[in-house]
Amino acid sequence: MIEFEKYTLDNGLRVLLHKDISSPLIAVNVLYDVGSRDEDPEKTGFAHLFEHLMFGGSLNVPDFDIPIQIAGGDNNAFTNSDVTNFYNVLPKENVETALWLESDRMLQLNFNQEMLDIQKKVVVEEFKETCLNVPYGDMWHELSKLCYKTHPYQWPTIGKDFSHIEKAQLEDVESFFNKHYHPNNAILCISGNFELAHIKERIQNWFGPIPPGQIVPRKLAQESKQIEKREFIKYSNVPGQNFLIAYHMVERSHPDYYTFDLISDLLSTGKSSRFYQKLAKRGDLFNSLSAYISGNMDPGLFIIDGKVAEDQDFNLAIEKAKIELNQLQSELVTNYELAKIKNKIISLLEYSELSILNKAINLSHFELMGDANLINRQAQMYENISANDIQRIAQEYFTEENCNSLVYLPNAN
Amino acid sequence: MIDRINGPNIKEVSISDFPKHRKIQLKNGMDLYILNAGTQNIFKLEIIYHGGRRYESKSSVGRMCASILKDGIDGKNADELSEFWDYYGALINTFSDLDTAGVNLTSLNKHSHELLPTFFSMINKPIFPSEEIENKKKIFSEKLKRELSKNDVIGYRELTSIIYGSEHFYGYNTNPEDFQKITRNDLIEHFEKYWGANRAFAILSGKISPSLELEVIEHLSNLRQAKTIYRSEALVPIQSLIKKGVFNYATSNKMQAAIKLGTVTIHRSNPDYTYLYLLIQILGGYFGSRLMKNLREEKGLCYNIYASIDRLKSSNYLYISAEVDGDKIEESIKEIKKEILLLQEELVSEEELQMVKNYINGKIMAGLDGPFRSSQLIKSYLSTEMSFDDFKIFNTKLSNASPIILRAIAKKYLDIDQLIQVIVGP
Questions:
Q1: Which chain B residues are Cβ-neighbours of A270 within 8 angstroms?
Q2: Which of A292, B29, B219, B362 is most buried (CB neighbours < 10 A)?
């Protein structure tokens, strides 16, 4: 049970406070409700570029790294399709430094051409390092494009193409900031070793005066139901045959989300999982085979990720993986197996609560979904899943019409 | 009122104490360290053996040996074991690094009674099933092949191999075909010689009840003995390892090049070590480091660049690592060298020094957040045979380090001519 206090400042900033005095540290997390799904299709990669710019200085703070480092802390951020999340972990004595930095960049970024030019170069390097320089690096580009035809999930967070980043102008950046970076579009969560009345007063002082902004409600083109199987084979400079099979699934806040997650664990978490036992263990057909969900706020993907062993027929490998999905449709999971997966999930939830930073990030995400207290109901959501739920989901979603298959084959062949 | 221009007053971060723990010497001579802390009803039991790569009879025997323990005991084959751990939501890991090898179990406290007997059977009487060994060889070999398509991985392997030599236990690399040469007997022999109470210590961390403690002590006291008695290992002499040169490796992966500049350096037991560590942090050990500021933030030459000291039991080496555009190699190396020279010629400012000291103190504090992290600190000290008192000495030296000391250290230990250059890519 994670206890927390929740309230909203007059400017609309949602605040979550979770006290944990067993740690000498405090985590300060700021989540902005903006991700790559909010980008213009011709200007992709902006949300992520912004994450970088947010470290380039704000109205009153020329350098973000120096103060946090003097305070003995550390900060970083991540961006995905749905959110941009900034976090700081520092010794409890110096929590206010993080409040100063986070509130100042929420107030006003310091836009300048030089900073933009540098960060554009850094992001382009990151693009090359993670998407072009590595085998399979463009796999997410290909998969997103294959699965989504109208929804902005059709491009990955890093952007469609690095030319979009190279073309970014100062005015684009300013307008992106003004559109999304406001207190009423953010969630502040602090967890760790603090005194409640004191931290509330400090939050009010630093964040209270920031004026709210105009937030245009999100209106994204939703993906229409896929009615036909899609397939794409790519020959590339890769060391082996890999594939991704993706099925459209439900949104993050849907009760069935937990069933999809449980199915992915049943198939591939741990060595007793079905994929490992039946297909991956011997290494003769697969080097590895796993299942996971993309976990998006809007309807995301249930993904089967296979690395096929050398000299094996990838079609056969895909067929074998699909047989496992078919089995979920035709046979009910036993009580024993269901209990095992639930035990496993509940243990993992407990392990994840060891870190104050994890707790702060998770609380913020659940609040974004509508209610931070969902964090305490997760275990129950998994407990409630029945064998029939699994069969129902498998029958409804793991169909050929809903299937997207992406295969990478080495060039030489 | 708040002062947005200057920000809040920053308080000096207090130096952390070494994590509170108890040490119990068991009747078989083995030491058990207990860290009782944390809020969740979870425990982690870790047993560390002096049985890593340096004791291998053939390449990767140590790693394979650690990994195969999970694959069978009397009465439970690999599948049944996996099923067993998964049923209780327990995490079980084996590891084998250059010096040590070991195994750990993480679980909810309420399952300890069911789990511990099986955990100890695994490290007392593993059965080394042939079929699983054959599988593992194939999987390890495939995995390695894939790893070898990364420029960064190749660069790291080549650097250590050049520093220590391709025959030395810190230097040799495993090739995908090496796994086939390993036999079941090699693994059994390695296990019998090195995996025993007389070459091990254990750490129990989490929310530890008296009954759990007793249960663990009982099991540990009956841990099997290894055939080879452990004696402390001598340090690898530095002088023989100092080399220079530029080594280029062309790969098909041409978009970016991996650059590694490195050399063997002083051991953790050397009185200058803390200062060198601090200096390397200033150069490239954190986000605002000299190298990051220059190559990433000012020139946009790379996305990531860092400098680090890898600490082994008998030797240390330092290196600078970056991935840059194929046509930016020369420029990047020039800038890296420029930053090193700057440290030798000019004094670090008091402000920068204080900042990095605070940063390191904060890092140390973060490493003590929660019982599992603290146990990793204890593990690292014991694995490299450092005394816990060295923690305090390190902290004291850190706070005493001055710009003049650091400049002298830069001259003494960062000789640009002695940096081996490994370039992998175009």
A1: 82, 85-86
A2: B362
